[in-house]
Specification:
Elements lengths: L6 E4 L3 E6 L15 H12 L9 E2 L8 E7 L2 H12 L4 E8 L7 E11 L4 E5 L7 E12 L4 E7 L6 H8 L23 E9 L6 E5 L6 H24 L2
Parallel strand pairs: 4-10
Antiparallel strand pairs: 1-2, 2-4, 3-4, 5-9, 5-10, 6-7, 6-8, 8-9, 10-11
Length: 244
């Protein structure tokens, strides 16, 4: 567990942090300290608050996933954030590292997923299967190294293990994700799936909020980020050149 939590944004109503792959958003059978508990301790110490500190969970990330997570510091913000997430009024982008590049550089995937509670795993099934839920995402290739490909994923729905399951279904399991077919685990026990950014209208102040989470401190992540940023800069230069 890291000693210093990475806070990306904070005001009176919300706090946004960059989760590591070792942290859990909410309690599980391990009994490990949750990210919510860490935030409560941070607020209590920073502001010398007496008594209990309110920290509300507005959405979740799988434990092995890293990246941006939003928490509420007031009940008003929590109820409004929960409504926003439920109605897809929050734009989230994910970065995923895969070994096997998809056949197409960009595509919208539409599948039906069914969750197996005992295995804590989702499976692609037929449309008419009982309890199957439609899952939609769009991916695009944003960088390639010698051995790996970086995909940016835009979720249209929020199903259990959706990105992990749908990418594995096209033959591109996420690096380190043993559960969905990648052959080796990552040294840190996580998977190479990162909640890169989040964008929404503040539930109380109504100002636009956009937060980008730095990638994990890992050589492969840093290299792929550099390649993605360079490609983005080149695309911008090209578009400017085209204008005139």
């Amino acid at each position: 567990m890291r000693s210093v939590m990475e806070v990306l944004y904070e005001d009176n109503h919300i706090i946004i942090v960059n989760k590591t792959c070792r942290e859990i958003v909410q309690g599980d059978k391990t009994g490990d300290t949750t990210l919510g508990e860490q935030i409560a301790a941070y607020i209590k110490e920073k502001y010398a608050k007496p008594g209990n500190v309110f920290v509300g969970v507005a959405h979740r990330l799988d434990r092995p996933t890293s990246g941006v997570v939003v928490f509420a510091k007031t009940s008003k913000a929590l109820s409004r954030l929960c409504d926003m997430f439920a109605h897809h009024d929050v734009k989230k982008l994910y970065w995923a590292v895969v070994k096997n590049a998809p056949k197409e550089d960009e595509k919208t995937l539409v599948n039906y997923l069914k969750r197996n509670e005992k295995q804590n795993k989702s499976f692609v099934v037929g449309k008419g299967v009982k309890d199957a839920k439609e899952a939609i995402l769009t991916y695009r290739t944003i960088a390639k190294s010698d051995n790996y490909t970086l995909l940016e994923v835009d979720l249209a729905t929020g199903r259990h293990h959706q990105i992990r399951c749908q990418l594995a279904n096209i033959g591109s399991p996420i690096k380190g994700d043993l559960k969905y077919g990648f052959p080796r685990s990552n040294p840190d026990g996580g998977i190479s799936l990162h909640a890169r950014s989040i964008e929404f209208i503040h539930p109380v102040s109504k100002k636009e909020i956009k937060v980008v989470a730095p990638v994990p401190n890992d050589n492969l992540w840093k290299e792929l980020e550099r390649l993605a940023m360079n490609a983005d800069a080149n695309d911008s230069d090209t578009s400017h050149n085209d204008v005139g």
